[in-house]
């Protein structure tokens, strides 16, 4: 099989690429290194890595028309500065539309997308959130632009799967609470937690399901979720355990910020129906795998799509 992976040097993209290569597929990965790193993918004779942006329409058309992939796995996204609307729209709207348009023009059979659970708004109307919950993405540039890309996909008539995700973590995770806790603990700084709960999933558990989606399993929207949320405090405790620190520093508990959702718990029932039984890796194992990665590669800073003052 031939698969084009955007954001192939990022967390989710690189794990998907590795699994595709392992089973003998041919892969072209495109990444502009905004949050990805070249060292996330080793050289491989069935892999071509293009360092460029999906906002470049001519290049995207060229890549898709020359390579003729059976599937596109579109993980590239811009999110690292909540005030950088320009780059969010350039990558997530223009770049996203470029990918969808090229898939249509050159007859790509499958398109796999990754949507944020923030598309349901900061105060979801139900828990767990069902797939038919209205999309209310207006709280951030990230969720507005990611949802725009999902709408283009729906408009396209392509055979697609969109995985709506809460928190995907593990090695190569550069955003959200896990790298922040690691870095602050390493630097001897105070950590902060809120009473929020989140639905954390291991990146490799997701990547296995993405490969199935490339093969034709599933159509339309899915929640990739274990169906259970955990407290941010539990995540913090798992980081402290994994780092094997001489003392066990306490995190200070803070009020939820105005951009923060108390709980994100996605209803995974349709995913279990169509993709079968999914093995979810336990939290401590997931966190320990991420910490091992940070020990070797460091973190990239403290990216979140939340405003800086809300995450301190
Ligand atoms: N990780 C999560 O918890 C989570 C939750 C919800 C949705 N998602 C979605 O999943 C996808 C992958 O997330 P991830 O965790 O792997 O993030 P990531 O930052 O590790 O990967 C994104 C990759 O896209 C690349 N990229 C950004 N702009 C680009 C451009 N214009 N052209 C080419 N490449 C570009 C980055 O350099 C990076 O390698 C994203 O679409 C994201 O919106 C992730």
* Shape designation: globular
CATH structural fold name of the largest domain: Rossmann fold
Alpha carbon gyration radius: 19 Å
What is the strand tally?
A: 13
Mean pLDDT: 94
Question: Which regions contain 5 or more consecutive residues with pLDDT less than 50?
Answer: 305-312
User: What's the order of the H and E elements?
Assistant: EHEEHEHEHEEHEEEHEEHEHHH
What is the count of structural domains? 2
Which percent bin holds the helix content? Answer: 25-40%
Question: Class of the largest domain in CATH?
Answer: Alpha Beta
Number of helices: 10
Describe the overall structure.
There is one protein chain. The chain is of the alpha/beta class. It folds into two domains: about 1-170 and about 200-225, 3-Layer(aba) Sandwich (Rossmann fold); about 175-200 and about 225-265 and about 280-310, UDP-galactose 4-epimerase, domain 1 (Alpha-Beta Complex), CATH 3.90.25.10. Helices cover about 40% and strands about 15% of the residues. It is built from ten helices and 13 strands. The chain has helices spanning about 10-20, 55-65, 85-105, 140-155, 175-185, 205-215, 230-245, 270-275, 285-295, 310, and strands spanning about 1-5, 25-30, 45-50, 70-75, 110-115, 160-165, 165-170, 190-195, 195-200, 200, 220-225, 230, 250-255. A seven-stranded parallel β-sheet has the order 3-2-1-4-5-6-11, sandwiched between helices. Strands 7-10 form a two-stranded parallel ribbon. Strand 1 (about 1-5), helix 1 and strand 2 (about 25-30) form a beta-alpha-beta unit. Helix 2 packs parallel to helix 3, helix 5 crosses helix 7 (about 230-245) and helix 7 crosses helix 9. The longest helix has 21 residues, at about 85-105. The chain binds nicotinamide-adenine-dinucleotide.
